């Protein structure tokens, strides 16, 4: 396997080459331009496991090179390196992630041996086979309608923990489509489809019913968790929605106080008066309301002003890396301060490493949910995960 380094500065290229050769047994190939790297890819793409690419280069810069990687369907590791300012590097990072590239991270020049070692370790991890997942396929509304009717939707659950104590607070319910041919289909491939074709009510009701049934099983096992279920703004066009939730919870034997509805305004309210009517009725039934992905899309301060939320979830784009990024940290801290003044509980989405955890713990944020804690899992695995988490929790709290 080969590692490519792309940098037009001979000294930097030579330095990176020496550092990487000392850290890995893989062949390290220096490229003085993006065109030279594309030639290597054209000759032997299957053998290239990792690319370190500078942003500022003549003829073809790093952003143009990223575009070429997308066109080539490159699916191995990528690291962006630059001497540009932090915000430019972060913007390039977001672009690469938006293109669905396997971005392992960014490094501000000069790269240290420790940073390079970390990227190599991350690169090794992505070689581990993941469960089959359908990617890129476009499904029809009829495909989804049949999947809902056939019971092909499955709930996965991602834990939320208290940052101060490490105790498990609850879980967020995340739906998956178990396609008989394509494997696991993730919600980014069908939620918008459901909203656009009038299927979101049926989908939400299936997810909610299964989540409440799972909550009852946990209660019977002595586990009292707050269970969050995502709701689309389109669900709030149905005035019967609060009564459906109350009936379903009663049938499952679950108190409404165990339920949290996470609301993401991915689409503008079609009928604001109806939505306000429903949201207030949910609140009167003591169902907790959470504003999800705060700071993105239409999730904004106007919602905080107009709707009686109990919880604010700070989007992962303002969490991961906040410990070393001034711009991200400023937005994160402003969100926390505003939530505190409004008497809301705060949840940080997306901590991915120990640095994120330590920063969040010191910030005074209430809860955290992300891959550093746990990935989403079937309901049957939650009890086992909690047992394992107890061994890890004390070390994280003691620091």
Number of domains: 2
Q: Beta fraction of the residues?
A: 15-25%
Order of helices and strands: EHEHEHEHEHHEEEHHEHEHEHEHEHEEH
Mean pLDDT across the residues is 91
CATH topology group of the largest domain: TIM Barrel
**Tally of DSSP β-strands:** 15
Helix content: 40-55%
- Which CATH class of the largest domain applies here? Alpha Beta
Name the overall outline.
globular
Q: Low-confidence spans: pLDDT under 50, at least 5 residues?
A: none
CATH H-level superfamily title of the largest domain: EAL domain
Which strand order spans the largest sheet, edge to edge or round the barrel? Answer: 6-7-9-10-11-12-13-14
Estimated radius of gyration: 23 Å
DSSP helical segment count: 14
Major sheet summary line: 8 strands, mixed, barrel
Describe this structure in words.
The protein is an alpha/beta fold and 399 residues long. The chain has 2 domains: 124 residues, Rossmann fold (3-Layer(aba) Sandwich), CATH 3.40.50.2300; 258 residues, TIM Barrel (Alpha-Beta Barrel). Helix content is 43%, strand content 22%. The chain has 14 helices and 15 strands. α8 packs parallel to α9. The chain is globular and about 70 Å long. The two termini are 38 Å apart. The mean pLDDT is 91.
Which features does this protein show?
8-stranded mixed beta barrel; Rossmann fold; 2 domains; globular; TIM Barrel; 14 helices; 399 residues
Short description:
With 399 residues, the protein is α/β, with parallel strands linked by helices. 43% of the residues lie in helices and 22% in strands.
């Amino acid at each position: 396997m080969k590692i490519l380094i792309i940098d037009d500065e001979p000294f930097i290229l030579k330095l990176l080459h020496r550092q990487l050769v000392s850290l890995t047994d893989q062949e390290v190939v220096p490229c003085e331009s993006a065109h030279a790297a594309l030639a290597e890819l054209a000759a032997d793409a299957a053998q290239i496991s990792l690319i370190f690419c500078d942003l500022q280069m003549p003829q073809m810069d790093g952003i143009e090179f990223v575009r070429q990687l997308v066109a080539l369907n490159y699916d191995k590791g990528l690291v962006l390196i630059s001497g540009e300012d932090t915000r430019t590097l972060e913007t390039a990072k977001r672009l690469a992630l938006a293109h669905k590239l396997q971005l392992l991270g960014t490094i501000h020049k000069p790269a240290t041996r420790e940073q390079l070692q970390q990227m190599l370790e991350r690169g090794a991890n992505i070689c581990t086979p993941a469960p089959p997942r359908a990617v890129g396929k476009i499904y029809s509304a009829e495909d989804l309608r049949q999947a809902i009717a056939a019971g092909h939707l499955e709930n996965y659950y991602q834990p939320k923990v208290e940052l101060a104590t490490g105790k498990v607070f609850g879980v967020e319910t995340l739906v998956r489509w178990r396609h008989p041919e394509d494997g696991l289909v993730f919600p980014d491939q069908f939620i918008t489809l459901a909203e656009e074709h009038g299927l979101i009510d049926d989908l939400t009701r299936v997810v909610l019913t299964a989540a409440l049934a799972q909550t009852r099983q946990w209660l019977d096992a002595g586990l009292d968790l707050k269970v969050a279920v995502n709701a689309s703004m389109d669900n709030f066009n149905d005035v019967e929605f609060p009564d459906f939730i109350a009936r379903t919870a009663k049938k499952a034997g679950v108190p409404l106080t165990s339920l949290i509805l996470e609301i993401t305004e991915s689409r503008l309210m079609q009928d604001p008066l109806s939505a306000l009517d429903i949201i207030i009725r949910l609140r009167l039934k003591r169902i907790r309301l959470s504003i999800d992905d705060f700071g993105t899309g239409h999730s904004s301060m106007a919602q905080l002003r107009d709707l009686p939320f109990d919880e604010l979830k700070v989007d992962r784009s303002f969490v991961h890396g906040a410990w070393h990024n001034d711009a991200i940290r400023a937005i994160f801290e402003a969100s926390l301060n505003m939530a505190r003044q409004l008497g809301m509980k705060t949840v940080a989405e997306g901590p991915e490493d120990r640095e994120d955890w330590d920063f969040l713990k010191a910030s005074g944020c209430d809860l955290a949910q992300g891959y550093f804690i746990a990935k989403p899992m079937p309901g049957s695995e939650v009890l086992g995960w909690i047992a394992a988490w107890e061994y890890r929790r004390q070390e994280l709290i003691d620091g």
